[in-house]
């Protein structure tokens, strides 16, 4: 789990005093500003008597941005900005002190909600607070968003594994993705009408794809389920489900923090899988890699994909030695610092460099890019 930012004394006073500190300390910025806006969204509704009268309280937020937060936005923000103990206190105050229970207790709120990735993350972060009726509705929302992600990624996976286009071989039949525009124009130039200056395409041409022949492979996805990695957990589950449907690939999915859970049996049902994920805790990467290593059947036909921020809670040498042993036996090790649509990496670069020296490949990829990378390695 990544270390939480150290705030200097000035930032601490800004968070304590809120807007009242602006004339002397300035507005601040960065992580501290985000923290202040999240705290203002919740505690700024206190009235003079401290009883939660939003209309009469001090407007302590830094600017107008905080007031525009929705409940899902706020939930996602605090899980990103604060450590677990602070998040638990903020959620408890939101529910018990201020009665902000829209997302987790009121079915009609979920019924009005627009399914999207941000709402999915908020649901997964608060599902432990939901009663059975709300949880059932939340599951339906999760299913809808996951289905949309699956449809998008499945197309990318099919494209990655469908084979490579041959620039020299053409066919008169094919899909739109195989359309050979340049060759079609060149071979239909004789049908150009000089008067209208229009080209009539009488026969389109398409690139020929050579299908990839897959030998049996094992792909072991190890995904860090600490709070900061939720986006990667979601996309790892969807990616695993897409790979599960491919012939010749045996897919494993293991989620870990300081403990680990083997979710391979649920890979075919990413909704159920995500509803089981427990976010939070520390990070014992070496334990997960050791568990995966024990399940490798044919070392030279195995790929271990480690999705983590690489902030290891165990001695680093354990993980480095394990990666070195895996690559020495012929297995491939890929470390991903991010696995979501943005692939915006935040990770321990020093440890990542040591893993590269031990034989791993480390980078940041979207799910579609991972599918392409795997297609190249598995053939």
Main traits of this protein?
single chain; 379 residues; alpha/beta; Rossmann fold; six-stranded mixed beta sheet; two-stranded antiparallel ribbon; 16 helices; 46% helix
Explain what this protein looks like in three dimensions.
By secondary structure, the chain is an alpha/beta fold. Among the domains are: 9-100, no CATH class; 217-377, von Willebrand factor, type A domain (Rossmann fold). The chain is built from 16 helices and 10 strands. The chain has helices spanning 9-17, 22-25, 30-43, 71-81, 84-97, 102-105, 107-112, 117-126, 132-161, 181-187, 230-244, 270-276, 285-294, 316-328, 349-357, 367-377; strands at 164-171, 192-193, 198-199, 206-210, 217-224, 249-256, 260-262, 302-307, 332-336, 361-363. Strands 7-6-5-8-9-10 form a 6-stranded mixed β-sheet, with helices on both faces. Strands 1-4 form a two-stranded antiparallel sheet. Helix 9 packs across helix 16 (367-377) and helix 13 runs parallel beside helix 14. It is globular and about 80 Å long.
Helix/sheet category:
alpha/beta
Can you count the helices? 16
Write down the secondary-structure element order: HHHHHHHHHEHEEEEHEEHHEHEHEH
Helix content: 40-55%
């Amino acid at each position: 789990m990544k270390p939480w930012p150290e705030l200097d004394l000035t930032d601490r006073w800004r968070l304590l005093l809120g807007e009242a500190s602006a004339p002397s300390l300035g507005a601040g910025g960065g992580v501290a500003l985000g923290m202040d806006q999240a705290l203002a969204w919740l505690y700024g509704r206190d009235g003079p008597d401290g009883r939660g009268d939003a209309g009469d309280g001090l407007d302590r937020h830094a600017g107008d941005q905080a007031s525009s937060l929705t409940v899902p936005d706020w939930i996602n923000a605090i899980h990103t900005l604060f450590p677990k103990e602070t998040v638990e206190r903020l959620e408890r105050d939101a529910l018990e002190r201020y009665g902000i229970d829209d997302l987790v207790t009121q079915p009609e709120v979920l019924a009005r909600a627009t399914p999207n990735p941000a709402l999915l993350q908020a649901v997964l972060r608060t599902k432990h607070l939901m009663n059975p009726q709300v949880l059932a509705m939340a599951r339906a929302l999760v299913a809808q968003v996951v289905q949309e992600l699956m449809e998008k990624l499945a197309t990318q996976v099919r494209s990655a594994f469908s084979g490579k286009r041959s620039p020299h071989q053409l066919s008169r039949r094919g899909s739109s993705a195989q359309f050979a525009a340049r060759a079609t124009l060149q071979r239909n130039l004789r049908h150009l009408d000089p008067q209208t200056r229009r080209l009539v395409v009488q026969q389109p041409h398409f690139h020929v794809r050579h299908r990839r022949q897959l030998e049996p492979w094992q792909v072991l996805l190890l995904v860090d389920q600490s709070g900061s990695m939720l986006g990667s957990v979601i996309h790892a589950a969807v990616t695993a489900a897409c790979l599960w449907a491919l012939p010749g690939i045996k897919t494993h999915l293991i989620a870990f923090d300081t403990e680990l859970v083997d979710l391979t049996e649920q890979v075919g049902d990413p909704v159920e899988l995500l509803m089981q994920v427990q976010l939070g805790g520390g990070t014992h990467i070496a334990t997960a890699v050791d568990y995966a290593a024990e399940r490798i059947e044919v070392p030279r036909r195995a790929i271990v994909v480690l999705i983590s921020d690489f902030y290891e809670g165990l001695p680093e040498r354990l993980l480095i030695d394990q990666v070195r042993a895996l690559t020495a036996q012929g297995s491939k090790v890929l470390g991903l610092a991010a696995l979501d649509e943005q692939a915006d990496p935040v990770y321990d670069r020093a440890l990542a460099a040591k893993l590269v020296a031990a034989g791993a490949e480390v980078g940041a990829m979207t799910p579609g890019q991972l599918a392409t990378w795997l297609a190249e390695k598995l053939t």
